[in-house]
Design a protein that fits this description.
By secondary structure, the protein is α+β, with helices and mostly antiparallel strands. It has 8 helices and 4 strands. Strands 2-3-1-4 form a 4-stranded antiparallel sheet. The two termini are about 15 Å apart. It is an enzyme of class 2 (transferase).
């Protein structure tokens, strides 16, 4: 079963969007398998956004993601990686489609509320960066037969 890593960034937490955001993935039918609330260290932030190390916005991105607590999550389900990216919306909230999280709640690329893994390889990498195996729960929701034929 496919898994993805999602993180509600400090702006999403400060703005009280945690419940609303989790609700969207829950009601879609995906399964929560990992959840924690943490203050991100500079080391974790730099590792997580390592691919962007050379970009001009990298220092402010690291500063932002470490500026307050975040909600880190692992969600499971068929096609969850691509589907979560659609639910999240385009990187720039100003142009993200209404109906997406970024399109509904944001206006600035540097305050785009939530992170989602973009591919199976990055999902795997990010899940193991943020969570130990013991922090992930293998469970079968009772809803399963009502969500899958
Ligand atoms: P995404 O988060 O949609 O996967 P990304 O991986 O290209 O986007 O970039 C990671 C984060 O870096 C993004 O969520 C916000 C920030 N960012 C990206 N491009 C930016 C830019 N041009 N100016 C400022 N911040 C940017
Ligand atoms: Mg990305």
């Amino acid at each position: 079963m496919e898994r993805t890593f999602l993180a509600i960034k400090p702006d999403g937490v400060q703005r009280g969007l945690v419940g609303e955001i989790i609700r969207r993935f829950e009601t879609k039918g995906f399964t929560l398998v990992g959840l924690k609330f943490l203050q991100v260290s500079k080391e974790l932030a730099e590792e997580h956004y390592g691919v962007h190390r050379e970009r001009p916005f990298f220092p402010s991105l690291v500063e932002f993601i470490t500026s307050g607590p975040v909600v880190a999550m692992v969600w499971e389900g068929d096609g969850v990686i691509a589907s979560a990216r659609k639910i999240i919306g385009a990187t720039n909230p100003l142009t993200a489609e209404p109906g997406t999280i970024r399109g509904d709640f944001g206006i600035n690329i540097g305050r785009n509320i939530i992170h989602g893994s973009d591919a199976p390889e990055t999902a795997q990498k990010e899940i193991s960066l943020w969570f130990t195996d013991a922090e992930l729960v293998n469970w079968q929701p009772h809803l399963t037969p009502w969500l899958h034929e």
